[in-house]
Design a protein that fits this description.
about 350 residues; alpha/beta; six-stranded parallel β-sheet; globular
Length: about 350
Amino acid sequence: MANMGSFKALFIEQDEAREVRASLTFLSPEQLDAGEVLIRVHYSSINYKDALAATGAGKVIRRFPCVGGIDMSGEVVESADPRFKAGDPVIATSYEIGVAHHGGYAEYARIPAKWVIPLPSGLDLLEAMALGTAGLSAALGIVRMEDNGMTPEGGPVVVTGASGGVGGLAIDMLASLGYKTTALTGKAEEEGDFFRHIGVTDILSLKEIDLEKVRPMEASRWAGAVDNVGGQILHWVLATMCQAGVVASIGNAADFKIRTTVFPFILRGVSLLGIDSGYGAMPLRQRVWTRLGADLKPPHLQDFIRVIDFDELPDAFPAFIEGRARRRTVVRILGATK
């Protein structure tokens, strides 16, 4: 064990009344979970899932107490796995991290080696967390759609929930690859300038769609779609796909239920692809992270980044629960101990 003293962490606990609270505290090395790789965490990030866990607004924590934070980037302190050595820059996201295994909201984390990825060439530790699970999800969607035949020449791609982290990063990636993109959003007026800055082709307001009157098949509009919201918006997306169109289903910000028909699938050959950034196979994850440091790296990534200090973290979660958060919030962990 490395020579470590106590270190700062965001501890999520549940009391006898089942009330969830998250607070900054100090832990000892013995309180870390099992794993082959000990990481000195430099950065983490805030995802909607993190806010649900820390506030108790969603039942995503599977054990109490737990250190929050499903994403982390940092430097290996020690490793029992020969693939990693002290000083290596690494990232770890998803799997059980931050929900059933102590996560990235701590100065140190011990993680199973099978969850750890070397920092890809082309990214630094801050950029890796500006992407985090949101960037991985967006990139997974694009790669899966490309694997299923989507090309820039095939037609436009619509991105729903475009003002969120996944949606914005997806637009930036797609535009940089030469795709014509349409941002579907309920915040068209306030986000319009930013969408145009990152290369969107068109902006479509949710106010223009009557979701109660969507027919099983509408006029063909999209060769591809990145859907972050689910519900009847996904039904509308499916109904408006072109022949052999591909849809990446990433989120359920509107609803986890969908009421639709088989017609888009059997009459237009539409493919609905489920995107799992939580437990997806490591070879695909590594492939996508490699591309995130290369051709899929968002050219406007710096414009997505808001960095906060570790001490500011507990007060940052309500904005995510209330839908006020924009783009990507990175948490600076390194140097938190005072």
